[in-house]
Design goal:
Elements (H helix, E strand, L loop, with lengths): L1 H30 L4 H35 L1
Helix pairs in contact: 1-2
Length: 71
């Protein structure tokens, strides 16, 4: 079960890196001083990536918890 913990930790780290990437993309779009519609379009492009990264980190944390409980 130790392997499950390490796999979960790797998934969590990958998800957190994805979340930071999304933050950087939205901050870059905000710094460009776009109008409201253009900024909204940029944020909508990043939203699926944000949700995917959040889901990946949640899945990883679930694997860590399962590995700890089963080990």
């Amino acid at each position: 079960m130790e392997t499950l913990v390490w796999i979960g930790a790797a998934l969590t780290i990958a998800g957190v890196i994805g979340l930071f990437w999304c933050i950087l993309k939205v901050n870059a779009a905000r710094r460009e001083n776009l109008d409201d519609e253009a900024l909204r379009a940029r944020v909508q492009k990043v939203l699926p990536w944000n949700l995917g990264a959040l889901g990946l980190s949640a899945l990883g944390l679930g694997c860590v918890v399962a590995g700890i409980l089963l080990g």
